[in-house]
Amino acid sequence: MYLASEWKDYEVIDCSAGEKLERWGEYMLVRPDPQVIWNTKKQHPGWKSPNAHYHRSAKGGGSWEFFDLPDEWSIRFDPLDLTFRLKPFKFKHTGVFPEQATNWVWFSELIRERVAKDSADNAAARPKVLNLFAYTGGATLAAARGGAAVTHVDASKGMVNWAKENAVASGLSEAPIRWLVDDCVKFVEREIRRGNTYEAIIMDPPSYGRGPKGEIWKIEDRIHELIHLCTQVLSDKPLFFLVNSYTTGLQPAVLTYLMSTELKPFGGRVEANEVGLPVSESGLVLPCGAAGRCVF
After folding, report:
1. Which of 53, 142, 149, 287 could potentially form a cystine with 104 if both were Cys, beta carbons 3.0 to 4.6 Å apart?
2. Are 90 and 31 in contact (CB under 8 A)?
3. Do 14 and 47 contact (CB within 8 A), yes or no?
4. Which residues have C-beta within 8 Å of that of residue 122, sequence separation ≥ 6?
5. Are 200 and 111 in contact (CB under 8 A)?
């Protein structure tokens, strides 16, 4: 399992009965989690006195109940010197998927090694990274910190603006990052026609979503197509390819098969595994989806 154990400002304290108790900096939140199908005793005092609690509705969606939580606050990811601005918004999210930190550490080291090999003083030697469904920029900033030139693509203007705020907070406002509000599939298709290539590709697609013009995205129907398209924008010196999934049907073995089939001509080595977060109270691990990694 790929374990995101490097956090100091984030912690899964406990999880039970469809919910998890988390510490985000100095604040504790209770949020639903569909993976938590066990029902154990909620002994930690945080369960009774969180700063906010997101309640799932039986009709779908849900709403926040606030007790003592600011509209916005920040946490740091010390290993990469990154700062993220957090705020609770609909669909229970806060602006960061903390389990993805295990991938940030992994690929930022690959980028640093490539930059050192190709000469860190030569801007042209920066590996180019394409980050699709880039959300609030965690992977974008990790890649930029490693020394890459990043193209950040997300269909939501609000998410791209939020990612820019995180870049400023992390001291990366001048980093070579292109911020694009666009449909990811259509963007890749245009890049193919333009002949643009990238040394690394990151994608974190939602299970279901809509593009800026109402385009429907359903991961099971579209992920193979997208991976295939992205192979056409890989450079002749590829570095890595990363696919994240929160969808139950895209298990590690499925990701391995998809990626191995499409990336075989490039000679890469594919490995896929579950992604998880350590749980303080139990000493166990909360599963948080899967990731497929290919190193060339």
Report:
1. 142
2. no
3. yes
4. none
5. yes
